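Dear support,

I submitted the protein below through the web form. The confirmation email said the job was done, but the results page showed an empty box. After a refresh the structure appeared. I'm attaching both so you can tell me whether what I see now is the final result or a partial one.
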Amino acid sequence: MNLEERISKIEERNKKVELDKSWETSLVRRICIMILTYIVVVIYTYTIQKCDNIFLSSFVPVIGFTLSTLSLKSIRKLWERNR
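What the results page shows now:
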């Protein structure tokens, strides 16, 4: 592998790292996490109504965060295309 190829690969990696960093701190990502977590909490609250079980109630943020991270992949692809 010659020097130009090595430099090219390093530059490509740097672009990917910069894009990852931009995504992690982006307002779009934060807003999506907030919205998706809010939706999960609303559905949960509507379904359970009144829950005195703290262990069951503790699942709300876990489920909301997990769902938001799973669905953010498609939102991230859109964000990257528009960036």
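Response: this is the final, complete result; the empty box was a page-load delay. Helices lie at 3-24, 27-48, 54-57, 59-82.
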